[in-house]
Amino acid sequence: MKNQAAGRNIIYIHMNHTARYILSSGIQFPDFIKGIPDKPSNLLLLKHKFEDGYYNMHTRLSFATSENVEQLLEDEVFRYEEFCWVDFSDEEDLNELTGQELAELLYLGHIKSPLRPPFYRILGNQFVYLTEEDGLFNKIYYKKWEHFFSMIGVVISHRVSPGRERTLFGRRKYRPAPFVPAEIMQLLGGQMREGVVFSFDKTAGDRLKIEVPIWIVGDFMDMDEMYEEYMQLSRLVPDGRLVLDRKAGEWKVLLE
Description:
- This protein is of the alpha+beta class.
- The chain folds into two domains: 28-134, no CATH class; 148-255, no CATH class.
- The protein has helices at 29-35, 66-73, 91-94, 99-111, 145-160, 182-186, 189-194, 223-233, and strands at 10-16, 21-25, 42-47, 54-56, 61-65, 83-88, 127-133, 137-142, 164-166, 172-174, 196-199, 204-205, 209-216, 240-245, 250-255.
- Strands 1, 2, 3, 4, 5, 6, 7, 8, 11, 12, 13, 14 and 15 form a 13-stranded antiparallel β-sheet that branches. A two-stranded antiparallel ribbon has the order 9-10.
């Protein structure tokens, strides 16, 4: 994106429901890991520059354990260029992969597209994470859509959390916004299939509510083109809003 700083002020989501993947911009690896409800046990690293992982002799690939993931969160993976992985349960599972399955995984990391549905019984993987520049343009396959809807609800709440507020006695306290429930995000599934932008630079809020505007922008593979389309459409009335009632602590969706 020409103005990459602007990418932190919006989130672009395009859902391919049939192929079970999400194209996104504005969500980085730490956002994803902190947002998904079921954390992966281990990551088989298909493309990376992580230096502190382990090496599996059967696949001749590196992998990260749950402890390594904490290191990855601090490692600025957006600087890796390519960062691609699938999760798995146990290293012994890697040793059971066939030559065909390994070839498919290598193809997946190289081409960023699977030869067949990329969920392997042996690995038990829930995700396939593919990017050439983390946070700018990510392609993630989800075995369960509820993982995605939960994750995006967490990410949005973090983006709109107002920070510290002054009390009557002059002290400050942190009042984070509650997570947007997965069932609320599911109500936007139809719009996400068309391609939407959640705008945080145009979010409005006061003591009573916070409103996140949503524009339907379409299906894009070029994030510069997507952002230009968003800039044009953002001059118009949004196609919908996510609204937080701050007193009740409840979210709702309003669609035009």
